[in-house]
Amino acid sequence: MWKALQALIAFMALMALHACLVMSMANAQTYYLGVLAPQGETVAQERWQPWLNQLNKQLQDDTVVLVPLALENWQQGIEAQQFALVLGPQVQLIKMNTTHWRWLATLQAETATPADKHDNEINKKGFKTNATDRQFSATVNLANEFNKLSQGSPLKEPSAMEEVASALWVKSDSGIYQLQDLQQRKITAVDSEAFGGYLLVAHLLQQNGVPSNRYQSHFVGYPIERTLHALASGSVDAAIAPLCLMEEMVRQGKISEKQYRLIHPVATTSSCQSSTRIYPNWTLAATEQAPAVLIRQINQNLFGTSQSKQALLGIGQHWLPPESSSDAERILYDMNRHPAQKQLGAHMVEWVKAHRLWMAVIVLIILISTVNYAWMSWLAWRRRQKITLQNRLIRDYDQQLRQSERFAVIGEMSGSIAHEINQPLATIQNYAQGLLIRSQRGQERKGLDNNSLNSLTAVEKSLIYKQATESALQQIVNETERVAAVISNIRRWAGRSQPDEVRVDIATTYEQCILLLGEKASAMSFWLVSDYPSLQLPNLVLDQLLMNSMVNAEQQGATQIMLRCQAEDYNGKSYIVLHMTDDAGGFDEAQLLDHKQLTGNKQLVDNKSQQRLHNRYATKSTKENGLGLGLMICQRLCKSLGGMMRLSNIEVQHELNCIQALGGYQQRFKRNLNGKVRLMKTESTYPLANKIGAQVSFYLPLHLADNAEK
């Protein structure tokens, strides 16, 4: 019974142990450790795998797997959040987002020597050291104490993976002896982001007045041995290498140390030569994926195992508490490489995000202002186009008006020339035809006179014929002179020059105009009364005024033409007025309204007719189908003298009684026996053709009258 009970208890214990093992295996986890591998995956496996194997043995159920990472994909792999543990140089971890990370330990270098011994070696070589270069971190001082305790034991060979510093190497026969000699030289390095390499030396050169734009940088990539190989080949002038890389390659027999020389050596706690001070070594950190139990077990492994036990296990890594990264971060700040240093654009984006409400208001205001500006600009452009178009139309219209005015002046001038020259030419034609007829009659009479006994002698007949011919020729000469005078007046008028004034006899000029009518005036009576014998006028002006009026009267069938010259007052001013009156029936009422002055004869001008008054004086002919050139010329002549012209209808008998009362006289054509025509005064009474006649009144300034002979 007892034996059966013991067997049952043993079986149950085995079952419980088996269950615990199964549960433990079920809860076991695998975690990944990302390690920077600057010398390749093989070197990283050889260096870190022994320590990781010893760590996995002490873990209860979990397993940590080593994953080497190159520098180019180091940050991307860590940020993928697949690693629970990260092991790398402290400065490389600074560039990442390490929020919620826990710093576990910092690697201790095994190649340290007593500081005094190293200082003596440096002093023997004649290199100068500064007090600032001897300021070590607390971790380095603690490492020196451990090394003092282990004095007498052989030191480990130096390695480029154990400490963070940079060495600047040149060939021994190079002419470069100080940092300033590197200007315009070609320098090789592993990578622009390598802290224990390019960044430390670039910061050193920058502090010594050699910025990066004064030398050429050439990056060869990993593995790190490529830098010294490039220097050995002579393709570059200097090489930047991690601390202890030269000593490690010399020990491996890859290069000869005598062929190279260090630039800017400084005293450090390391047995390796360096151009910069030593910064905190590699750091082990736990990410958010690492549980607290795993972190606690790792801490016990790192700081709970003695160095003698680690040496028996073949583990060469020794760990110290995590050290501050302030010195490394200061260098990154100086080089503008710190991740906290954001570009101006990033700061502006953050500021905009922080003040997005106000920025939205500002953007809205700017948008509204832009739209308003665009709208106003479009309106202004449209208004400008309209104004430009209107100005163009106004200019075109003004040009057309000017052109029309020029054409009107040209037409007026040509019409005036034709009208004025036509009268003398008609007179010349009449006299020439008269001479021709007289010559023909003279030939006929000569044949008859040969058979007539009562005829005059041949001498007398020849004398009479000669006198008639001479008279006609003299009239032709006079008319040609008159044509020349008309042309001269037209030239003066076109040039707007003031012609010379002459003394013009009114009666003589009136008689000459009557004679110019020729045979057309043979059945007409001409009356004249004048308070002034002469006027001071430009040459032929009075002839033109009288002739145009008399021709109009003759063409309308007048039998009586009267000229009355006397002083009158009109609208408060005194004028000398020439009234030309006929008995041809007067002006047509519609035509007369077009010729009335705006301020005169208001009883004949109604509201309807005022809308048709375009000019101040008459410009339309009083004859049917007439051009109005005669009246237009008279109007312009009066205006040029400072006067005016008026048209009206009048009772002919009343005008005749007025002339007779003032002592006027009547003249008619009379032909002598010899055929000569002359004006003769007569007292005979001749009937009027019409009771109503037309009157053209020329109002001239009173100063034109010859008062001395009044």
UniProtKB/TrEMBL annotation:
Residue ranges of every copy of the Histidine kinase/HSP90-like ATPase domain listed in the record: 537-704
Catalytic activity: ATP + protein L-histidine = ADP + protein N-phospho-L-histidine
GO molecular function: ATP binding; phosphorelay sensor kinase activity
Transmembrane segments: 357-381
Pfam families listed in its UniProt record: HATPase_c (PF02518), Phosphonate-bd (PF12974)
Keyword 4Fe-4S: no
Swiss-Prot/TrEMBL keywords: ATP-binding, Kinase, Membrane, Nucleotide-binding, Phosphoprotein, Signal, Transferase, Transmembrane, Transmembrane helix, Two-component regulatory system
Endpoints of the signal sequence: 1-28
Record EC number: 2.7.13.3
Protein name: histidine kinase
Organism whose genome encodes this protein: Psychrobacter luti
